[in-house]
Write a structure and sequence with these properties.
Pfam families: adh_short_C2. By secondary structure, this protein is an alpha/beta fold. It has a single domain (about 40-230, about 255-275), classed as Rossmann fold, CATH 3.40.50. The protein is about 35% helix and about 10% strand. The protein is built from eight helices and seven strands. It has helices at about 50-60, 75-85, 100-115, 140-160, 180, 185-205, 225-235, 260-265, and strands spanning about 40-45, 65-70, 90-95, 120-125, 170-175, 215, 275. A seven-stranded parallel β-sheet has the order 3-2-1-4-5-6-7, sandwiched between helices. Helix 1 (about 50-60) packs parallel to helix 2 (about 75-85), helix 3 (about 100-115) runs parallel beside helix 4 and helix 4 (about 140-160) packs parallel to helix 6 (about 185-205). It is globular, with a radius of gyration of 18 Å.
Length: about 290
């Protein structure tokens, strides 16, 4: 059983850094044993410098995949992810830049193909959020930035990746429990996460005939740098006992999310597409 993590008041600035988090997050359970489920596969993961993206990269590597790590600007965190992937005996490529830029997304995909010779798994995980309790005070620029980061970058990368994907390959999109529960403080973020659910379902229907599976993961509260950089920045005290509202009474760890992405990336999910997994601490969302 995973022990409850005591989270205390703290804050960071966006996009947040893994190295500043207290307590540190867990990325892979010590007893997690790889079984070659992704042997020989090549994966591209956005937002993989920290949090859920880093956990996914490490789990993929332990299962035998080479990994390309895309991130915005957190060089130290990205180097640590690279170290952890390479410690699993796999190759790791790091690519820094802004996924709001379509040309950067296309160039990044080309770099992955040139480096590794192909692509089998795309994980659209990068995202951002901010807190705003009054829609009339939500700046147009914030609305546009949230959609550009969370949704447009996903579109650009997926569009570039599709010609390189084929039978038994997978696309996995990170949505959120907030797409289903609609928190009042994050209308813009929740709207993007709802769009990701619909994007996942429609794209699955479009490419399932090619043998490409498209699924999503909708995490509940997970201990990642985005939390102190958003909730903590708004009010550090809001992080006290973060996650305690879940039925399990605790925040999730990235180590508990990585296996979800392994499942959806591997042939364990060979008869699953257009679906969403809900690792959220027991909250029933009926979605």
């Amino acid at each position: 059983m995973v022990k409850k993590t005591e989270i205390h008041a703290q804050q960071q600035s966006l996009p947040g850094k893994e190295s500043l988090m207290q307590p540190p997050a867990e990325f892979i359970r010590p007893d997690y044993r790889g079984s070659g489920k992704l042997e020989g596969k090549i994966a591209l993961i956005t937002g993989a410098d920290s949090g859920i993206g880093r956990a996914t990269a490490i789990h993929f590597a332990r299962e035998g995949a080479d990994v390309a790590v895309m991130y915005l600007s957190e060089d130290d965190d990205a180097r640590e992810t690279q170290r952890l992937v390479e410690a699993e005996g796999q190759r790791c490529l790091t690519i820094a830049g802004d996924i709001r830029d379509a040309a950067f997304c296309r160039a990044s995909l080309e770099k992955v193909i040139e480096t590794f010779g192909g692509l089998n798994i795309l994980v659209n995980n990068a995202g951002t959020q901010q807190v705003c309790y009054d829609l009339t005070e939500l700046e147009d620029s914030q609305w546009e930035n949230i959609f550009a980061t969370n949704m447009h970058g996903m579109f650009y990368l997926t569009k570039a990746a599709l010609p390189h994907l084929g039978e038994d390959d997978a696309i996995i999109n990170t949505t959120s429990i907030n797409a289903y529960v609609g928190p009042e403080a994050m209308i813009d973020y929740s709207a993007t996460k709802g769009a990701i659910v619909s994007f996942t379902r429609a794209l699955s229907n479009q490419v399932v005939g090619r043998g490409i599976r498209v699924n999503a993961v909708a995490p509940g509260p997970v201990w990642t740098p985005l939390q102190p950089a958003t909730w903590g920045a708004y009010d550090p005290q809001m992080l006290e006992d973060f996650g305690a509202q879940t039925p399990m009474g605790r925040v999730g760890q990235p180590s508990e999310l990585g296996p979800c992405y392994v499942f959806l990336a591997s042939l364990d999910s060979s008869f699953i597409s257009g679906q969403t997994l809900h690792p959220n601490g027991g909250t029933v969302v009926n979605g």
